[in-house]
Give the backbone structure.
Amino acid sequence: MKSELLTALRSTKGFVSGQELCEKLGVSRTAVWKGMKKLKSEGYNIEAVSNKGYRLLKSPDIIDAEELKSIRKTAWAGNEIVYFDVTDSTNIQAKRLAEEGMPHGTLVIAGCQKSGKGRRGRGWESPKHDGIFMTLLLRPSFPPAKASMLTLVAAIAVAKAVRIKTGLFAEIKWPNDIVINGKKICGILTELNTEIDTIHYVITGIGINVSNQKFEKEIAPVATSLMLESGKEIHRAGLIEEVLEQYEFYYNKFCQTMDLSEWKEEYNEYLVNRNRPVKVIDPKEPFTGIAKGINERGELLVETEGQILAVSSGEVSVRGIYGYV
Ligand code: ATP
């Protein structure tokens, strides 16, 4: 009922009459009145005027499933939304939900994570209500070898959504981080469940620092938040919705060609490492060079000793020569 009420209130800038709400939702006047009372108690600022009805003036910074459903504009991303106030990790929960048969497009959201995950067993600092902790569950029909490109789909979706919603100059540190002014505001972790030539499911976890004011000592030099960078409060639900819209857009284009050729150039404009010296920390053989951009397979092209090497994301980390980017 909460998401239907919010959708109805958001369908107009003006008032919605009580009668209209009863008809739209198929409930009694008392039920509408109770619903409004509950919304107000959660922090929604709703004006009620006799003979006119109700008008939503302002929404609180809530990201539960009902709120997100009421603002969703996508065709499939977020078609099912599962919200946890506190959880271990949205990737862990998404895996569990995938095993239970939840569909392609399912979105898992948490208010806070107790054991947020980074790549190769590292952690992701996930303090209560300061960030966005979301995982998208996908059930693609393409072969497992293509799946690493999904991290790049998520990266461009987040960078673009952040630019749209905050005006901040978000850039991509290939392959899985989003940075602003050289500091990290987002990490992406894609995990797969596959057989030799089929994908059972893919989960892509996205952690965004939104209103963090400070970070643990170890990451403070390389981490920042949207609030620290913009000085403004950012509405998390609106940003999540924009990320889903952008994700769907780039994912659909990716599926048309099964590579990144449709938006490779655009991605390269977001690439913080482009034309900069980088250190490629390959466990087999680390090397330095100049990052030139990505190719249509999502590999990073690095010029070194007169030749261009294509680096695939797998086990590799990329750093700037003098610091993080
Ligand atoms: P790589 O380039 O090798 O992937 P990374 O440092 O970007 O390195 P990730 O796995 O993407 O590694 O992210 C995990 C790391 O990010 C942690 O080890 C920690 O250094 C840092 N980190 C953890 N939480 C946050 C956060 N909330 N904001 C920014 N950085 C964080």
Remarks:
- The longest helix spans residues 236-257.
- The first strand starts at residue 45 and ends at 49.
- The mean pLDDT is 95.
